[in-house]
Specification:
Layout lengths: L3 E5 L3 E6 L15 H12 L10 E2 L8 E7 L2 H13 L3 E9 L6 E11 L4 E5 L10 E15 L2 E10 L6 H8 L13 H10 L5 E9 L6 E5 L5
Parallel strand pairs: 4-10
Antiparallel strand pairs: 1-2, 2-4, 3-4, 5-9, 5-10, 6-7, 6-8, 8-9, 10-11
Length: 228
C-alpha cells in the first residue's frame, strides 16, 4: 500500500498521501487512496461481504503530498466535515517557491475564479465584473529560509490556509510573484528553469493537520513523516 497510515482508532484514520496519487478517482484502472484504504479496512474487518465505511472529509491535489484524515463512522465524518467548513481544522503547509520575499511574513487575500473547462483558477481584479462570481481566498505565509542555486534563489515557506479554494496556494503564490517550484500549471519561465535544477515534483506538502477529535473532544495534531 502506497498510502502510509500515521494514526488509527475506531473513529478516524490519519494518513500520509504521497505526491502523485489521487485521493479519489472515477477511473477504473487508476489507483487512489480511498480504494487502498477501503481494501485495507475490508481485510481487517470481521464483516464479510460488506463494504467498510470511509468518509472523505477533505482532499489534496494529486501532485501535493501531505496529511489527510478520513472518518470511519458517519458521526465522525459529520464532525470533521463541520470543522473543515468553519475553519476549526488547522491546515499548515510547507512549500519551496521561486525568488526571495521583500516581506518575510504576510497575509495574502484574493478573489479566485475557477475555470472548470481548463481545471485552473485565477485571481480576479477587484472592481471587475468577475468579482461576484469568484470566492475569497486567504492564507498567511512565513519565510523559513532562502537558498541560492547558481544565480537564482528559492524560499522555503510555511503557509497557513484559512480557506480551501481550488488550487488556492498555487494560484495565490504565483500571483504574488512566487510560483511553487515544480508547478507546471501556474509556473513562470523563471520558476520552471529553477525547478529543473532543484528536482522533479511539486514542492508543496500539507505537513501538519490539527483538529478536534470527533469522539474524545481533544485537540490532536499530526505531522507528515516527510515534506518533499
Amino acid at each position: 500500500m502506497k498510502t502510509q497510515i500515521i494514526y488509527e482508532d475506531n473513529d478516524i484514520l490519519v494518513c500520509y498521501k504521497p505526491a502523485g496519487i489521487a485521493v479519489q478517482t472515477a477511473g477504473v484502472f487508476q489507483q487512489d487512496m480511498v480504494s487502498e484504504l477501503k481494501n485495507y479496512l475490508a481485510e481487517k474487518s470481521d464483516t464479510t461481504g460488506k463494504e467498510p465505511y470511509l468518509g472523505v472529509v477533505h482532499r489534496l491535489d494529486q501532485p501535493v503530498s501531505g496529511v489527510l484524515v478520513f472518518a470511519k463512522t458517519p458521526a465522525a465524518a459529520a464532525s470533521l466535515s463541520a470543522q473543515v467548513q468553519d475553519g476549526r481544522a488547522e491546515k499548515m503547509y510547507r512549500a519551496r517557491v521561486y525568488g526571495a520575499f521583500s516581506e518575510k511574513e504576510s497575509v495574502l487575500e484574493d478573489i479566485l475564479l475557477k475555470d472548470g473547462k481548463t481545471n485552473t483558477s485565477r485571481v480576479v481584479k477587484i472592481g471587475s465584473r468577475e468579482v461576484q462570481q469568484g470566492k475569497k481566498a486567504k492564507l498567511s505565509y512565513r519565510v523559513l529560509q532562502e537558498t541560492a542555486v547558481e544565480e537564482e534563489i528559492y524560499s522555503e515557506v510555511e503557509i497557513t490556509l484559512f480557506t480551501g479554494r481550488h488550487h488556492q496556494i498555487r494560484v495565490q503564490m504565483s500571483n504574488a510573484g512566487h510560483p511553487i517550484l515544480g508547478d507546471t500549471k501556474y509556473g513562470t519561465p523563471g520558476s520552471s528553469e529553477l525547478s529543473a535544477k532543484v528536482g522533479k515534483g511539486l514542492k508543496l506538502c500539507a505537513f501538519r493537520l490539527t483538529f478536534i477529535h470527533p469522539n474524545t473532544g481533544k485537540k490532536v495534531s499530526f505531522t507528515a513523516p516527510e515534506i518533499f
